[in-house]
């Protein structure tokens, strides 16, 4: 009998406190001694979920991290995602690999643009969400206002599971609505010290609690797992109000591994054949060893170290001798893994995002798209002798999904495509830090890109022959139309109705 799995992501708008909450969940789960410290091989080692140099400099998450820990017989696979919208592709792909999500909302700001976008991705995949309203120890909006906004904007039933007794300067603690116990701030730092009571409330707060219990839906596990209801927890990750309750809620309510969409049919976790898909590739987590790790979500079967799996990419079985379980950038060898687990497979460009791995190669998981870039740039190499290193670096980062690379039909300048400006900063930072390549960026003569296809190959050839100056290939050899503007895309699409112009391409 294997221990139950809970594979979940934490999503939020930037600065809602997601990384702080992540570290407190790890602390409560016993995976670290202090926020940012790893308990590994008997020694404390500094390792935050934000491990890239640019992340530490800017205080933001720009890549998804995977952290596995166990508490009370439940194995938790926590995926921390970038909050910044410029990295929405990485977040989208991460959400294909989880069974539930925790949505973090700032009590002062409520639902923000990126929160809403990420929620819509969860809704598309029917990922159930637990909401955590953070920073209630600071001045913020009224709890009723926040709950109504979640219900109205996200079209969800809300079920408050606890209630803040005052906010900001009047913050007196958090009441568990099912037991009536109140966790109170204590000590100089005003954190929660682990004691709670059932002292009577003042009339004002007693009335609030009564309205909260009577005015909103009661928690219903079926409605939550169907994505129709979100349980809401109020708290302060920084002051230790809420992380313990969140872990308990995930263990009690969040779904175990779910069937995954695939062709020819969805794959259930109790299928005996080992299957999984690659949702992320990360190079240079250990820059000294130039490593390349493919992150695989195990979907079915019991994986054993050393077994052979066949990737859809090239059909040749590969033996997985050194599978890895993660704690941020720290790792240990996994002798076995079960559905819901995330394992890392070291490789040298063999595995790519979107690849399915299976014992018999008779299945292909679906739903991991590429998005058309909205910013195109040419890379300007400062030292022409490093052309080979630049090509290697751009290929590596294109495999990871950090950027896209397009090779024009006419001319030799490679074009880099990204969804957001911050990705360009990451590109230049990593070129310098990991590949020792100094480079700059210059405007490209194009503004956006679309993948093209046609039912009749003759129609496609006719189009590409007439528009060679605007044609390129992506790194898989797929034809891409480079346009000077979104208006031009529409204009050309109207002129060539037999050619399909796609803003996404499934891997």
UniProtKB/TrEMBL annotation:
Subcellular location: Cytoplasm
Domain Tr-type G: 3-258
Predominant location: cytoplasm
Binding residues annotated for GTP, in chain numbering: 12-19, 80-84, 134-137
Family annotation (InterPro entries): EF-G-like_DII, EFG_III/V, G_TR_CS, P-loop_NTPase, PrfC, RF3_C, RF3_dom_3_sf, Small_GTP-bd
Pfam families reported for this sequence: EF-G_D2, GTP_EFTU, RF3_C
Keywords: Cytoplasm, GTP-binding, Nucleotide-binding, Protein biosynthesis
Family the entry assigns: Belongs to the TRAFAC class translation factor GTPase superfamily. Classic translation factor GTPase family. PrfC subfamily.
HAMAP family in UniProt: Rel_fac_3
Cited function: Increases the formation of ribosomal termination complexes and stimulates activities of RF-1 and RF-2. It binds guanine nucleotides and has strong preference for UGA stop codons. It may interact directly with the ribosome. The stimulation of RF-1 and RF-2 is significantly reduced by GTP and GDP, but not by GMP.
Stated name of the protein: Peptide chain release factor 3
Gene encoding the protein: prfC
């Amino acid at each position: 009998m294997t221990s139950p799995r809970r594979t979940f992501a934490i999503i939020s708008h930037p600065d809602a406190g997601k990384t702080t909450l992540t570290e407190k969940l790890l602390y409560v789960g016993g995976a670290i001694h202090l926020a940012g410290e790893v308990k590994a091989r008997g020694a404390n080692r500094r390792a935050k979920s934000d491990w890239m140099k640019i992340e530490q400099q800017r205080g933001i998450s720009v890549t998804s991290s995977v952290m596995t820990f166990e508490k009370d017989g439940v194995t938790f696979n926590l995926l921390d995602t970038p909050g910044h919208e410029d990295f929405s592709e990485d977040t989208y792909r991460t959400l294909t690999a989880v069974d539930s999500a925790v949505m973090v909302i700032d009590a002062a700001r409520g639902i923000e643009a990126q929160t809403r976008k990420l929620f819509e991705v969860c809704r598309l995949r029917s990922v159930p969400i637990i909401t955590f309203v953070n920073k209630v120890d600071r001045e913020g909006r009224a709890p009723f206002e926040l709950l109504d906004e979640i219900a109205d904007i996200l079209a969800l039933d809300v079920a408050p599971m606890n209630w803040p007794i005052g906010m900001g300067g009047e913050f007196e603690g958090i009441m568990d609505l099912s037991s009536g116990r109140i966790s109170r701030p204590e000590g100089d730092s005003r954190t929660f010290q682990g004691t709670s009571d059932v002292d009577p409330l003042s009339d004002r707060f007693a009335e609030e609690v009564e309205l909260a219990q009577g005015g909103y839906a009661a928690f219903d596990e079926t409605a939550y797992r169907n994505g129709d209801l979100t349980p809401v927890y109020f708290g302060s990750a920084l002051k230790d109000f809420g992380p313990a309750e969140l872990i308990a809620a995930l263990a009690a309510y969040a779904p175990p591994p779910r069937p995954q969409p695939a062709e020819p049919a969805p794959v259930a976790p109790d299928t005996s054949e080992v299957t999984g898909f690659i949702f992320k590739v990360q190079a240079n987590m250990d820059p000294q060893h130039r490593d390349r790790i493919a992150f695989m979500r195990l979907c079915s079967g019991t994986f054993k170290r050393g077994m052979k799996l066949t990737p859809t990419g090239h059909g040749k079985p590969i033996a997985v001798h050194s599978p890895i379980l993660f704690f941020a950038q720290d790792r240990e060898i996994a002798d076995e893994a079960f559905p819901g687990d995330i394992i890392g497979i070291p490789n040298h460009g063999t595995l790519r995002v979107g690849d399915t791995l299976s014992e018999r190669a008779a299945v292909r998981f679906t739903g991991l798209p590429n998005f058309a870039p909205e910013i195109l740039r040419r890379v300007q190499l400062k030292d022409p002798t490093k052309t080979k290193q630049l090509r290697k670096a751009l290929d590596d980062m294109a495999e990871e999904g950090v950027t896209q690379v397009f090779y024009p039909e006419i001319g030799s300048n490679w074009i880099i495509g990204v969804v957001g400006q911050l990705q360009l900063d990451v590109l230049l930072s990593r070129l310098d830090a990991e590949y020792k390549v100094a480079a700059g960026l210059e405007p490209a003569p194009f503004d956006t890109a679309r993948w093209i296809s046609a039912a009749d190959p003759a129609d496609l050839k006719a189009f590409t022959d007439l528009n060679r100056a605007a044609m390129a290939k992506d790194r898989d050899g797929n034809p891409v139309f480079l346009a000077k503007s979104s208006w031009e895309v529409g204009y050309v699409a109207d002129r060539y109705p037999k050619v399909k112009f796609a803003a996404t391409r499934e891997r």
